[in-house]
Amino acid sequence: MSLHLRSGVILGVCAALGIGSLTLSERSVLAQGKGGLTEAIGKISAAVDKGDLEGAKKLAAETAKNSEWDEVMHLFVLRSHKKPGLGVGDKAGAITPDGIEKKLMKLAENPLSDKDLGAESAALVKMGNDMVALTLVTLAKPPEKDDGKKKKKDWVAWSEEMLKASQEFTAAAKAKKAADLQKAAVKADKSCGKCHDVFRFE
Ligand code: HEC
After folding, report:
1. pTM for the whole thing?
2. Could you tell me if 83 and 155 lie in one domain?
């Protein structure tokens, strides 16, 4: 066997055993327990719900170390996605759209009726807390250095805008104020767009 071939075989065996090739999400599962990122975000969201923002920030800093931007952001997608997002509310499919990103866009377009807001209030409070949790992780994960238009200070500013909008969203959902909820949804949606224009689609 030539040396070239043999090293190829060794490489192949290493790859099969997974040596040195743990993906980040596998590492995050190891670091964050079986539930991985979803569970970690759930814990942060629960701290936010209790009003413990400082505790939530500490957890978010840990989670930020063990995750990538795309896995954090992915949790905004529909729960029915083959790799499920967080969804809206405790019960899958009970509220539509059952994903934070789509729900936010819908709420930004049209205010909820008082009746729907009454029925969805608890789920929307949870959605707001989940948004705060995801934002705290985003905030704890700015780019290490500026890269052309991708500036660290903008990342932080847009994350802070999203944090504020998410907190206003939760407050409006708790108070069952449809007009305020719509305003907060518009503001949150804009902050997503500003960051995406530069960091996601550039
Ligand atoms: C501070 C910057 C920033 C903000 C604010 C932000 N995002 Fe993102 N988002 C990103 C980046 C960067 C990516 C691309 C990640 C990658 O592919 O590496 C992304 C990707 C995504 C994706 C695709 C994830 C996937 O791979 O499946 C979704 C969905 C998403 N964002 C939703 C949102 C929503 C909803 C908001 C607002 C509530 C938001 N984002 C706010 C930076 C941001």
Report:
1. 0.87
2. yes
Q: Dihedral of CA 125/61/193/70: which sign?
A: negative
142 and 169 both lie in a single domain: yes
pLDDT of residue 202: 75
* Atom 16 of ligand 1: nearest residue by CA position: 70
Determine the atom of ligand 1 nearest the C-alpha atom of 191.
5
Residues 94 and 4 in one domain: no
Domain residues for the domain of 130 are: 34-200
The CA distance from 193 to 73, in Å, is: 13
| Distance, CA of 88 to CA of 125 (rounded, Å) | 10
Q: What is the pLDDT of residues 152-168, one digit of tens each?
A: 999 999 999 999 999 99
> Of 168, 192, 198, 202, which is best to mutate to test ligand 1, by the most ligand atoms within 8 angstroms of its C-beta?
192
Do 116 and 42 share a structural domain?
yes
pLDDT on residue 33: 47
